[in-house]
Amino acid sequence: MEKKRIRCEVSKKCGGCQYQGTPYEEQLRKKQKQEELLLGKFCKVLPIIGMEQPCFYRNKVHRVFDRDKKGNAIAGNYEANSHRVVPVEQCLIEDEKCQEIIRTIRGMLKSFKIKTFDEDTGYGLLRHVMVRRGYKTGEIMVILVLASPVFPSKNNFVKALKKAHPEITTIILNVNNKKTSMVLGEQEKPIYGKGFIKDQLCDTMFRISPKSFFQVNPVQTEILYQTAIDFAGLTGKETVIDAYCGTGTISLIAARHAKQVIGVELNKDAIRDARLNAKENQIRNIEFRQGDAGDFMVAMAEKNKRQMWYSWIRPGQEAMRNFSLPS
């Protein structure tokens, strides 16, 4: 596929892409200029590393389900600054297989008598569908977001979907019965497969759960991470803090080059996956902590500050015994 972007039919309504219709090389030039304006007075800005194939790369695809004026089921994205659903048949930056699976699900709704959820009335069952695909492993996760845990003909639905797409490795039922703009609810359970998929970045294998953060552009992520490691110039003696570490992607890759790595993340599901990822990759010089990364770094800075004060107290100086540190 050429780098020149094919024009998307719904880009102006969807609002998801700011550069649709602009040739890729021109996109890179505009972004380069913007970065130079923002950062040029502080440092040298190197050329942006673009993609060889800048289409159909996103490994996570989400669609909102609704009905049009004729009552037909539609799957799309919210129009910018609204909750109006713009039907999206094909997105030019999202994985094609994931989109195909979503179209299949939309086509199955009528035969299984599944109603799409209506935000105004609160009536209906299917709210969202999210599909995630491992770029290197090919594993596929389908997440059905329902307004109720009661899913009629669940087994037959799964069987039919698997028949249409045998490449699917797991299907999760997620329940979101709240009036919220959040896609995923708290309650979820696998109804087929293990409930997670795996993918590989920089020779490291990662487990990905429904709520876990994982970079959506795997090709550029490998380039980004390797560039960051090269620029960090790690010698194997450092302690590295990976703030907002997600499933531990940067943490685990950096651990191969540092003395110790501490990953901090608020999302408990992501931390669980990060710890499992470390174990599976047999990386031991790493620890993951659940909590606010900002609070953690402030606490670490205070701890180091206090240690520096104590290091100034010479052994045997009795006069310093009651020395108190500033708060």
Description:
There is one protein chain. A seven-stranded mixed beta sheet has the order 3-2-1-4-5-6-7, with helices on one face. The protein is built from eight helices and twelve strands. It has helices at about 10-15, 25-40, 95-110, 155-165, 220-230, 250-255, 270-280, 295-310, and strands at about 60-65, 75-80, 85, 125-135, 140-145, 170-175, 185-190, 195-200, 205-210, 240-245, 260-265, 285-290. The termini are far apart. A hairpin with a 2-residue loop joins strand 8 and strand 9 (about 205-210). By secondary structure, it is of the alpha/beta class.
Structure, briefly:
The chain is an alpha/beta fold and 327 residues long. Helices cover 30% and strands 22% of the residues. It has a 7-stranded mixed sheet, with helices on one face. The chain has a 3-stranded parallel sheet with strand order 10-11-12, with helices on both faces. The protein has a two-stranded antiparallel ribbon with strand order 8-9.
Q: How is the secondary structure organized here?
A:
Elements (H helix, E strand, L loop, with lengths): L10 H4 L9 H16 L20 E8 L5 E6 L6 E3 L8 H13 L17 E8 L6 E7 L7 H11 L3 E8 L11 E6 L4 E5 L2 E5 L9 H15 L6 E5 L5 H7 L4 E6 L2 H13 L5 E5 L2 H19 L16
Parallel strand pairs: 5-6, 10-11, 11-12
Antiparallel strand pairs: 1-2, 1-4, 2-3, 4-5, 6-7, 8-9
